[in-house]
């Protein structure tokens, strides 16, 4: 390894194709952040319990192909019954978003079956695509309510602010990527605004056409758009799930002046946001009061089962008995053909497509 390593591989992200399992981590060295690291493990060797399964490690992605710093790269995986693309694993990343960004990047690891024969025959290609604008998210408000931990922290002299805090709106990392029907589906959290309106958090989504890179990677955004919440509301940590037949949904946390942190989703092509589980209290966790950073995880998640159900998971505040240091929970729900399993109602959220 080069740079300031050995490193700690933070936030492992998982993908798969027919030949391998893929991990992407964000590497932190002793003094600096070293960016994305990619790992490939032989699926066949793992299935046969090999003592030392073939593996490949790729680092220094930026210097390898001469692009902007590759800080976080999302592997892709396909839903059941979709064959994916034989011999290719795709990855997608957002750019730094230290300003308004108008590009995303697609990586293609090719000839993946070579992991079991001659790993030196693996190939890596990059395409940087012009995209809609996205920007670093802002901190997100939440509905005012009871915060018993904040009150105890104030009495105990906590070093940070001991009152209800805004939620961390995340940063510019690309979120979950799925590959179905020859297309990559993904999203990223972004700040959104209209003239005369406050800056709020929403989601920018992308559908990317890709073709077999054996003759050179071909990638282009075929559809893209934004999803925004109701007035004065934020959407945090989007994750997209898509079936082999092309039905897709995006899950996220909904929060704002009129919403405690709530689990919600949007079906692609729909006109409104649907509530999965309504939050009943504000976030009231120790990180806000003792570290002055009210974390809200790093991602939501989506997966597809054999019957085509899209399973969605995100954080919300359920009420009831709480842990000593925090009161959040993960809500999981299954939806099919654009409806959630419990028939929950929609809100007046908005979506857009370009």
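Q: What amino acid sequence fits the structure above?
A:
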């Amino acid at each position: 390894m080069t740079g300031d390593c050995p490193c700690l591989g933070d936030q492992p992200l998982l993908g798969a194709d027919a030949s391998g399992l893929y991990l992407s981590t964000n590497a932190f060295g002793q003094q600096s952040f070293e960016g994305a690291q990619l790992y490939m493990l032989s699926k066949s060797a793992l299935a046969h319990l090999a003592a030392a399964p073939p593996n490949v490690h790729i680092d220094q992605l930026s210097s390898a192909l001469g692009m902007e710093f590759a800080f976080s790269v999302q592997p892709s995986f396909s839903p059941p019954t979709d064959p994916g693309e034989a011999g290719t694993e795709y990855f997608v990343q957002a750019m730094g978003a230290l300003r308004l960004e108008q590009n995303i990047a697609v990586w293609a690891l090719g000839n993946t079956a070579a992991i079991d024969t001659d790993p030196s025959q693996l190939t890596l290609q990059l395409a940087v695509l012009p995209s809609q604008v996205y920007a670093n998210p802002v901190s997100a408000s939440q509905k005012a309510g009871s915060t018993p931990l904040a009150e105890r922290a104030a009495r105990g002299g906590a070093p940070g602010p001991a009152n209800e805090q805004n939620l961390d709106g995340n940063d510019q990392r690309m979120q979950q990527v799925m590959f179905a029907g020859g297309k990559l589906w993904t999203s990223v959290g972004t700040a959104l605004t209209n003239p005369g309106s406050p800056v709020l958090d929403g989601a920018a989504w992308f559908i990317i056409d890709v073709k077999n890179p054996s003759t050179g990677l071909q990638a282009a955004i075929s559809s893209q758009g934004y999803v925004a919440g109701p007035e004065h509301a934020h959407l945090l940590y989007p994750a997209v799930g898509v079936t082999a037949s092309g039905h897709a949904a995006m899950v996220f946390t909904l929060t704002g002046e009129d919403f405690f942190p709530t689990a919600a989703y949007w079906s692609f092509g729909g006109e409104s946001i649907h509530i999965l589980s309504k939050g009943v209290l504000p976030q009231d966790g120790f990180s806000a009061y003792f570290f002055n950073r009210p974390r809200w995880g790093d991602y939501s998640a989506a997966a597809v089962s054999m019957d085509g159900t899209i399973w969605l998971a995100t954080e919300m505040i359920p009420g009831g008995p709480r842990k000593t240091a925090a009161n959040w929970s993960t809500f999981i729900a299954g939806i099919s053909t654009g409806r959630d399993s419990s028939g929950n109602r929609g809100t007046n959220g908005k979506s857009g497509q370009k």
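Q: And what stands out in the fold?
A: The first strand starts at residue 8 and ends at 16.
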